[in-house]
Specification:
Blueprint (H helix, E strand, L loop, with lengths): L1 H34 L20 E7 L4 E6 L16 E8 H5 L5 H9 L4 E8 L11 E7 L1 H12 L21 E4 L10 H11 L23 E2 L7
Antiparallel strand pairs: 1-2, 1-5, 2-3, 3-4, 4-6, 5-7
Length: 236
């Protein structure tokens, strides 16, 4: 009898644990589903022509804990940050506002970043030339893309901005970063984090395989399609 009661008690504890976990995950999921604004096609692509007779350079950079997308800007598109809109190359990266932009690594901020829906930012950085492995990233990957792929990628990336069909005003400059931060549309949480964002937008342009369980930066590379590793450490 005691053994049976113990088994029932253990089963009840398991049910309670599963229910609590479902509640902890379900509430943020519902909040995100209800309050995330729908993506709005950006006006920045309207009337913009791309030379279909050439190919364009595309890079994915692994900076250690997060990744970014660096693209060759089509002539006359003005995609760069406010301080250098016509930069030859433009880097897009996304993350939690407190952790990424404000460098708040306190236990409270870390818990919120991982387990709670938090506000996000998009960082735009200008590059005067194509990036090289010596520029500080841990790993760098490169490939050539055509005009159609580039247009699809830009269209997807531009939906990250918060607001209407035009870009919002940039946030105040942050001394540690060369580019500018902008309010972003989506909430940040561990199942929708910065490295999943990188793969999601590359996949939208047919440049990566979709992956739902991407969390750390090292998980991005296996999803890339036809990229070449430029970092010396990856060619050993």
């Amino acid at each position: 009898m005691r053994t049976m009661k113990g088994a029932i008690s253990q089963r009840h504890c398991q049910y309670i644990g599963v229910g609590t976990l479902a509640l902890l995950l379900g509430l943020p999921f519902c909040y995100i589903a209800v309050f995330t604004p729908r993506p709005i096609p950006s006006l920045i692509l309207q009337g913009r022509a791309i030379d279909t007779g050439k190919t364009y350079k595309l890079f994915v950079a692994n900076w250690g804990y997060h990744t970014s997308i660096i693209l060759q800007q089509p002539e006359g598109w003005l995609l760069g940050p406010e301080n250098d809109v016509d930069a030859p190359f433009v880097e897009y990266s996304w993350g939690d506002r407190n952790f990424y932009m404000n460098a708040d690594f306190s236990p409270t901020a870390l818990f919120s970043t991982v387990f709670l829906p938090t506000h996000s930012v998009l960082h735009l950085r200008n590059w005067a030339r194509d990036p090289q492995p010596e520029d500080g990233m841990r790993h760098l990957y490169s490939r050539q893309i055509n005009a159609q792929q580039l247009r699809r990628l830009i269209r997807s990336l531009e939906t990250t901005f918060q607001g209407s069909q035009s870009r919002p005003m940039p946030l105040p400059p942050v001394a540690r970063f060369r580019g500018r931060f902008y309010p972003a549309r989506e909430f940040y949480i561990f199942w929708s984090a910065c490295n999943a964002w990188t793969v999601q937008h590359l996949a939208a342009a047919g440049l990566a395989k979709n992956g739902w369980s991407i969390v750390v930066a090292e998980q991005v590379a296996p999803h890339l399609l036809d990229f070449k590793a430029l970092s010396p450490s990856l060619n050993r």
